[in-house]
Amino acid sequence: MKRMQKILSLSLAAMLALSAPLALAESGDTNSSAQQTMQAPPEPPSGQMPGGPGGPSDGQQPPEKPDGDFSGGPGGAPGGPGMGSSSAPTEYQAAFTLTESSDGQTYESTQGDENAVLVQEGSVTISNATVNKTGSSDGESADFYGINAAILATGGTLSVTNTAVTTAGTHANGIFSYGSGTTVNVSDTAITTTGNNSGGLMTTGGAALNAVNVTVSTAGNSSAAIRSDRGGGTVTVTGGTYETAGRGSPAIYSTADITVSDAALSAADSEAVVIEGGNSVTLNNVSISGNDANLNGQSSVKTNVLIYQSMSGDAKDGNSTFTVNGGSMTALTGDMIHVTNVTTAITLSQVDFTYAEDSQVFLSASADAWGTSGKNGGHVTLTLVDQDIEGDLTADSGSSLKVILSASSSLIGAVNPGSASQDVSVTLDATSTWTLTGDSYLTAFSGDMSRMNLNGYTLYVNGEAQ
Q1: In the predicted model, is pLDDT for residue 71 greater than 90?
Q2: Secondary structure (3-state) at 145
Q3: CA distance 267 to 293
Q4: Is the N or C terminus of the chain more exposed, i.e. has fewer CB atoms within 10 Å?
């Protein structure tokens, strides 16, 4: 009875709120409009609202994402939010809504659920500005649609250059690009966020975001430096420094197609990279490190790179890709790569790896907290191109592993050492080598055994010693 009274009270409050006149925001900028409440944002490209296809079908709460928040928020481990509204907001509120370019201005917002700067159409450039955002929000409106971000674009093209952006609330992202057809370009800009669930650069709903020489620092939990969420998009980052300090805050959280080149990235209390669903991350000449010392949410494997599907509906289904060309990757704890509940293609070329002292596993493919038991293994094609790696490659009974060594690559480690998986193959070309560090069990092998160093161990192919 009390629950029914509460529902009726909330419904009445909502009706009164809808009937109230819309307030006008004060604006001291001559290039901004005075409207505070704006038109509704478009739906994500799929047309689905949160809770649509991809979510649990039994009406039960889906498993937590790696950051410890229930699914429904940003991409998990790192960047995820919590529970929120189940549909797109009907309006935006902003301290400043820009329709023309500006130079040398200061923009501030102290209200919760309000953007400091909002751009919805046209071509707008913000240069040499200071943008300060305080006030908090919660849930999906902030994480899917940009409510409460310091700077939000929901249409047109927004360019931000030589600007300082600071946020101090929860669910207060730095710069947010939302919606198909929206493009945000950011250059020579510093972004600092201190609250939980407050990423640096955020992209959702099929938008595009391009960043050049940007510095991002986030302090809160679930606050990835480069993050995306429902509806994905395309993110291209060149140069700059991206650092996170909070738990479950990777340097990159991808439900989009993200490419980062010539940049430095680090996560002090999280995986370095998380890829959710049928999405991608490409790193070119990047230095990146992670420290997944404290497991987030229901994840059971400490890892530097997590590739998974959460089943929350926030990331599209399909195969994912992870490509690293040159640069360096450091794992301060755990496996280098963990794959679960998804099929992925991983390509590594000329990467300098530094391995954690607490794990001898380079890559693990196995069931974890997400998906349907018995069907939630990891399925991996690992291609090495002029690449040296050390550590075991493992797969459980519900997972598969295909390993290709090419162009003078080398592997020092065991493959499927426990003989758990019944679908593991290795292809060794005429220029590459494999040194065993334990008995290895394959279902298929292609290559010249003279290129192998058994090192006192045994290679079994379909149960027969080679």
Answers
A1: no
A2: helix
A3: 11
A4: N
Cα 98 to Cα 66: distance, rounded to the nearest angstrom: 37
Query: Backbone phi, then psi, for 374, in 5-degree steps?
Result: 90, -15
- Which residues are bridge partners to 343 per DSSP? 379
Host H or E run for residue 17? helix 2-19
The CA dihedral of 178, 184, 186, 191, to the nearest 10 degrees, is -20
Specify whether the backbone of 456 is left (phi greater than 0), alpha (psi in -120 to 50) or beta.
left
Question: What amino acid is encoded at 314 in this protein?
Answer: D
Q: Is 234 helix (H, G, I), strand (E, B) or coil?
A: strand
Contacts for 65 with CB less than 8 Å, ≥ 6 apart: 71, 73, 75, 76, 77, 80, 296, 297, 310, 312
pLDDT one-digit tens code per residue, 244-257: 999 999 999 999 99
Task: Give the span between the Cα atoms of 10 and 453, in whole angstroms.
Answer: 70
Summary mean pLDDT of the chain: 85
- Whether residue 172 is predicted with pLDDT greater than 90 in this model: the reply is yes
Closest-CA residue to 368 (of 316, 302, 425) = 302
Cα–Cα distance measured from residue 229 to residue 450, given in angstroms and rounded to the nearest whole number? 48
Burial of 47: CB neighbours in 10 Å, binned 0-12, 13-18, 19+: exposed
Around Cβ 243, how many Cβ atoms within 10 Å?
18
Residue 146: left if φ>0, alpha if ψ -120 to 50, beta else—which one?
left
Q: How far apart are CA 394 and CA 385, in angstroms?
A: 20
Pick from 255, 245, 204, 205: which is nearest to 225 by CA? 245
In tens, the pLDDT along 92-108 reads 999 999 999 999 999 99
Show the tokens assigned to 461.
């192919």
- Phi then psi for residue 237, to 5 deg, are -125, 130
Separation of alpha carbons 433 and 429, rounded Å: 8
More confident residue, 126 or 38: 126
Place of tokens 């050390």: 390
Token output for 28: 């001291």
**H or E, element range at 107:** strand 106-109
